[in-house]
Every structure is written in C-alpha cells, then in structure tokens.
Amino acid sequence: MKNPTRAFKDAIYEQFARVGKAISSPRRLELLDLLCQGPRTVEALANESGLTIANTSQHLQVLRAARLVAADKDGLYVIYRLADQQVCEFFRSMRLLAESRLAEVEQIKNRFLDGREGMMPVDRTKLLKLVREDAVTVLDVRPSVEFNAGHIAGALSVPLKELQQHLSDLPRDQEIVAYCRGPYCVLSVMAVEILRARGFKAIRLEEGIQDFRALGFPIIGNEEV
Amino acid sequence: MKNPTRAFKDAIYEQFARVGKAISSPRRLELLDLLCQGPRTVEALANESGLTIANTSQHLQVLRAARLVAADKDGLYVIYRLADQQVCEFFRSMRLLAESRLAEVEQIKNRFLDGREGMMPVDRTKLLKLVREDAVTVLDVRPSVEFNAGHIAGALSVPLKELQQHLSDLPRDQEIVAYCRGPYCVLSVMAVEILRARGFKAIRLEEGIQDFRALGFPIIGNEEV
DNA sequence: ATAGTATTCAATTGATTAATTGAATACTAT
DNA sequence: ATAGTATTCAATTAATCAATTGAATACTAT
To answer: Within the 140-179 window of chain A, which residues sit less than 8 Å (CB to CB) from chain B?
Structure first.
C-alpha cells in the first residue's frame, strides 16, 4: 500500500513527464520549432517536415494533449499555434541544453554545413551590435507568413525563394545580414551564398527570431504566441 | 533518397530528442529533481524515489547517456551528480511550463495537500523580502547532505527528522520560515505543522534551492553543479 | 583468497509509442 | 444533394521502453 507522500510524488512526476513525452519525438520537436516561427496549417507543417498529413496530425494531437499547442478552425483549415510564448522559451532552453551537452550536435552541424561559404566565421557580438544600431541591412529570408508572425524591427522580408527577383532592391554599398529560423535552418546559408555570388557583402546570423527575442531585440508581428 | 537538408534536420532533431527522451519518464524526472538538491549514491536515490537499486541504476544510465548526469567512483560507492547547473535550470523550466500548462498539477497539489496547516496561504513576495533582509529565521529542513551541497546564505540546517531535538534552539519571538526541496516536497509542510503545534510562529516557503538561486538569493555550499 | 556490499549488465516480459493505411468527419463550392 | 478538400480517427504492425530478475563486476575488509 503506497504511502500518501509516495502517491503524491508519483502523480506529480507523471504530470511533468507529460511534457517530456511530448518532446521525446524528433518529429514533434521539428513541428514545435516550426510553430515557433508562427502558426501553420497541418498541410503546411507536413510539407515543411516531410511527414504525411495523417502522421503530422497525430503528432499534433499528442502536442495538443500535452497542452503545448492550440488549434483554431478557419473554414476548412485548422491553424495550429504554440499554446504560449513559454513553450517557445522552453523549446529554446532544451535546444541550448542539447547544444551544450551533446557534442554530436556540433559534429552534425559541421558534417552538413562545414565549408559552405554561407557559414564563414563571424564576429557575432559585433554583428548583433550592428543590427541593433541599424548599421546594416537586415534580411529575413523565411517565408513571408513567418516574417508576418514576428520579425526583427527594421528587417526586410525577402523569402529565399524570391531572392533572385529582389536583388535589384538591395544595397551594394552596405553590409547585408541575413537570418532565418535558427542555427539549424539553411535558408540564410543559401541566401548568403547567392548574395555573395552576385557581389553583395552578405553575412549570415545564425540566431532565429526566438533568440533575438531572448536577446532583447524589438520584435514586430501579428503573433504574440 | 532523402535530400541533404532533410537528412541534416532529421539528424539534428534526433539529437534534441535525446533530451526529451531522457525526461519522458516520471522516474527519471524524480531522480533529476533529487540531484538538483545535491549529489547522491545509487542506493540513496533508490531509497528516496522508492525504486529498486537495479531500476534506479538503469534510469541513471539513460540520464548519463543523454549527458545530463555524471558519475564519480568513491571506493565502493558511485556518486551521481547533475552534469551541469544548466540541467537544473532546464529541469526548473520544464516544471514551470508543466505548472502553467497542465491544470492537473495544481489539482493534484490541492488533492494531496489542501487543508494541511503547513499549507496556509502566505504573502510570498513579502516573505521572500523578509528572508532577503534576514528579518526571519530561515530553516532548511532537508537532509543535511542536501543543505551542505547548497543552501540559502544564513539558513539554519534542521533536517525534519531532527526537528524535535532542536526545538529548544529555535527562537520563539521571531517568525520562522521553513523551506525544503520545492513546491512538491512535503518536508517543510510537516516541519511547519510540528513547529506550530509547539507554539512557534512558523510559515512554509514553497520555493526550493534552485528557485532561490533563480531569484538571486546568495547560495552557499560545496556543490556548484 | 574470500565474503560482503554496491552497482551494473543482460535477458525477458509486458506496455507504450510511431508510422501506415483506409475510413470517417467536417467544411466548402456548386 | 454532391463532389472535392482538409483533417482526424481507428486498427494494425513493428519498434521502443520500463520493470523485473538473476548474474556479473568492482571494491573493501578480513
């Protein structure tokens, strides 16, 4: 017969484990990461993550059961969003912990990205300072739906897919800093490669919108998750 | 044939999921919570958590594989500790998220603790101020090994098991504030009940040592996890 | 060398989880 | 009312996970 204190603790940790179980799947982590950039339909999430629509829906049900995401109906479409900004912050703290504790993270990054011109070393502190001071042109190369959800104040939206068409809009006499979803998104790597090939002075910042938010940058957008 | 970007993302989220899998078990969460209070042997962890020694060891192997805990040999004994202070912070952010997102947490707390005299409502902000100003007697009622690992500067160590023997040491003219491992530990609930039954002016603070650390209280001890 | 103690390992069993597939449901346009 | 589209549900299968049990390993005291 379990004593009441033991029963209490078992019940409490069972609840905490609901959060752990929700993020124990790489698939659900990717869905959360995408939702950190802004709300999305099931179909859009399936496309971005490479999952089937049914599988995506099932993982979203798990995240919803753990109360990490919420859903709204918009006609035929269901729009999923993070339940709270705190979920983004938690995701970010999990990522930072994984980065600092698991050497494999850096190894994988190096294996897939090392040597790419968009990845050359930058003076991150100086670059962040230049961004804060509006001393550079800041490009957000994510899809515009993510830009609209939230972006650095002053950033221009030039989704990677539209970059070729917008080259003439960009300054050649000022440094261009491109960002996307975060350190493990290659949109800005590719953008910088394209820009540099065309003679622009372009550099990548690996921070994503949630990192900028945590660093105190003013974020503008229609989604206060 | 998976494209390289897809393979990269799959590999990265697989790494992140290692953290999620590690904390998907209520048993491992309790072990982490205990280790947040200070290093412990397998046997001590098994005793506190109600698990068998073999089961405890297996869960510790999982946590070690995720690089969240580290082990040192001390003769016959293996001492487990958290691998980094950041693991504590992550654990705490998971707990705060669960508290804010899962109504069941509050419900369980109420079901097991509601009505107990050690749980009466307190003006938490005022109490924290009084603690900070040394205007109250602060009791740490955890086992002394946990007190030694880290405690609020100025706190007295009176483990619950030894409280009866130390009553004569305690002031009757000053308010006594007792704390233990955190909101889901009942050591301080019981301590306050005993103290009040003996005429002391005692109140419980539900914060644990990691909450105090996050709130900026000076922490003294021999364990800088 | 041996007995005792602490811890880990390995195999087994039962439970849980993830992906797939096809059906069901909900909504819209006609 | 019907067809099309988006999403969810349910059943199935395979993989993973958790607890148990007994054996193995590591260390200490004698």
So the answer is: none
